[in-house]
Amino acid sequence: MTMGVAPGGTAVAARAATPPAAGCAAVDWGSLPKDSAVAWHKPLRDIRAGSHDCYDRVVFDLLGPGTGRPIGFHVRYVDQFHQDGSGDVIPVRGGAILEVRIAAPSYDPNTMQRTYDGKAGQPLPEVDLGGYRTFQDTRFGASFEGDTQVAVGVRERLPFRVFQTGNRLVVDVAHSWRGFR
């Protein structure tokens, strides 16, 4: 990021028009579905988002210490966001809808106590997308049969990647196709 001067002498940050950082153009980016089938489930603790130089990110935090066991997920673009269980369509703003299903219920299966306060059809709690370049909306779908379903409204169908780090599932969506495979 560079600094510039606006009329009147005020300093402003300006983004240089450069290609994405080398770490962004990894081979696992693309717009086709990405999956990891696994039967291991841990309760969902939090969902948060962040904006980076070449992508916007949503992170799903699971309860418990990191075990290195894989987290099950299915991430894909959909034409409409249908709530699990009811099949109701949940409107999502944006030019494209990225649906994330994660093997992490929003409740503790042993106690049935809520571990994440998402409400069907509503934006994700405490996720403010103001100033994001790619993300335009989020919606909680449901926590049904051990999985949680979330929609991310994006500007357009863009390349994305999914990976796990500890007890976190990370979904990055690029700001553009430039520099991605």
Could you please describe the fold and organization of this structure?
With 181 residues, the chain is an all-beta fold. It is built from no helices and eleven strands. The chain has a five-stranded antiparallel sheet with strand order 3-6-7-9-8, with no helix packed on it. A four-stranded antiparallel sheet has the order 4-5-11-10, with no helix packed on it. A hairpin with a 3-residue loop joins strand 4 and strand 5. The model is unreliable at 1-21 (pLDDT under 50).
The helix content is: under 10%
Total number of beta strands: 11
Distance between the termini: 25 Å
Strand content bin: 35-45%
Biggest sheet strand line-up:
3-6-7-9-8
Sketch the major β-sheet.
Answer: 5 strands, antiparallel
Average pLDDT number: 83
Radius of gyration: 17 Å
H and E order: EEEEEEEEEEE
Shape: globular
**Secondary structural class:** mainly beta
Number of contiguous helices: 0
Poorly predicted sequence stretches spanning 5 or more consecutive residues? 1-21
